[in-house]
Amino acid sequence: MNKPIVTLAIASAMALPAAAQQNVEVLHWWTSGGEAAALNVLKGNLEKQGVKWNDMPVAGGGGEAAMTAVRARVTAGNPPTAVQMLGFDIQDWAKQGVLADMNDLAAKENWDKTVPAALQKFSKFGGNWIAAPVNIHSTNWIWANKKVLAKAGVTAEPKTFDEFIAAAEKVQKAGFVAIAHGGQPWQEATIFDGVALSTGGVDYYRKAFIELDAKALASPTTLKVFDRMSQIRKLVDKDFSGRDWNVASGMVISGKAGFQIMGDWAKGEFVTAKKVPGKDLLCYRFPGTQGVVSFNTDQFAMFKQKDADKTGAQMKLASAIMEPGFQSAFNVVKGSAPARSDVPDTAFDDCGKKAIKDVAEASKNNTLVGSMAHGHAVPASIKNAFYDVITRHFNGQIDSKKAVTELVSASKT
Ligand code: BGC
């Protein structure tokens, strides 16, 4: 009697389509060894919750190429579900009303209390949460190969710009590349962040590069910043043009070069190469910027979706990003500090512990400033115009005086 019913039940179950697995398409520019290793931590955390990760990598440090890809996708009416973004880019998309509102999740998980105010400025728009911050990076760092420095007779950490130049010259004279550098506009701008802060201090940096005060921009301090960029130019190797930042990190890791001036994503490369701070590598703040942090924060913004299932998966991704255990595991690998102030530093190496401490202190002392080079000081149009001037000057196409005039014009872009 029962048999036909059972058969019927099985038959109808077989006819039903299998429940579609939730998935998110994630567009990002984390393609170097260290970046990919960190990304895998996030992927793993999300997949534990049953959400499939569709990877959409767009190579190119600093994310310019990724942002071009996002614009093309949105224009074609096919935005990715989740996108890695920096500061002003997040705000620009939010202004267009295309980003998903994460308020319910943020309220449930208390993001207001745990995410530092400096980050919330970029994660919220009109009081609504529109991005989930995954880290706090900073640009005013120097990475050094301890053995190379010892061979060159550099035994103490340079504390001023002039001491740094003297140390780099020693490294060069000892037969190494003094400063491993990749000649790409965003990398030159990254160096510029540190040089500007070291030369003019935090008040000058804020006035010139955040408030775009014409007087500060046109001041003798800016002229000196460019002159110092020329000093650095003399300490890079002849093959620097177009080199990727992680290749430059590799030169320090392998002992070919002494120093790299780069944000702390460089540490991700050292970690992946199993190098240990204090033993193999040294990390210090760009000389003359001790106590100051020029930060950028990678955040994930979600483009609005019609499909409720997709929105559900987006919120699972956001929740996975904000989980304290994940923030520790991810940032240990990525080289950054957590984007939450309640994550212990126990799992971090010495450079990571310093990063966390520096951010907390800078935040307390009002010396935490948005990085111009990484989209946290001015909108992308002005940032790109600044890049252009800084790069042409670095490549000797314009002198320092002309660079100052052009920087002032670029600020009005
Ligand atoms: C991002 C980092 C990334 C770096 C190099 C920065 O703008 O914040 O996460 O590792 O670019 O690609």
Task: Give a short summary of the structure.
With 413 residues, the protein is of the alpha/beta class. The protein has helices at residues 3-15, 33-47, 64-75, 87-95, 103-108, 111-114, 117-123, 146-151, 161-173, 185-210, 214-217, 220-233, 245-253, 266-272, 308-322, 324-334, 350-364, 380-394, 400-410, and strands at residues 23-28, 52-57, 82-85, 124-125, 128-129, 131-133, 137-138, 141-145, 177-179, 257-261, 281-285, 293-296, 299-302, 368-370.
Task: Provide an overview of this structure.
With 413 residues, the chain is of the alpha/beta class. It folds into 2 domains: 24-137 and 296-365, Periplasmic binding protein-like II (D-Maltodextrin-Binding Protein, domain 2), CATH 3.40.190.10; 140-295 and 370-410, Periplasmic binding protein-like II (D-Maltodextrin-Binding Protein, domain 2, 3-Layer(aba) Sandwich), CATH 3.40.190. It contains 19 helices and 14 strands. Helix 4 (87-95) runs parallel beside helix 7 (117-123) and helix 18 runs antiparallel to helix 19 (400-410). Residues 29, 35, 61-63, 86, 137, 265, 296, 298, 374 line the site of beta-D-glucopyranose.
Topology:
Elements: H1 3-15, E1 23-28, H2 33-47, E2 52-57, H3 64-75, E3 82-85, H4 87-95, H5 103-108, H6 111-114, H7 117-123, E4 124-125, E5 128-129, E6 131-133, E7 137-138, E8 141-145, H8 146-151, H9 161-173, E9 177-179, H10 185-210, H11 214-217, H12 220-233, H13 245-253, E10 257-261, H14 266-272, E11 281-285, E12 293-296, E13 299-302, H15 308-322, H16 324-334, H17 350-364, E14 368-370, H18 380-394, H19 400-410
Parallel strand pairs: 1-2, 1-3, 9-10, 12-14
Antiparallel strand pairs: 3-13, 4-5, 6-13, 7-12, 8-10, 8-11
Helix pairs in contact: 2-14, 2-16, 4-7, 10-12, 10-18, 12-19, 18-19
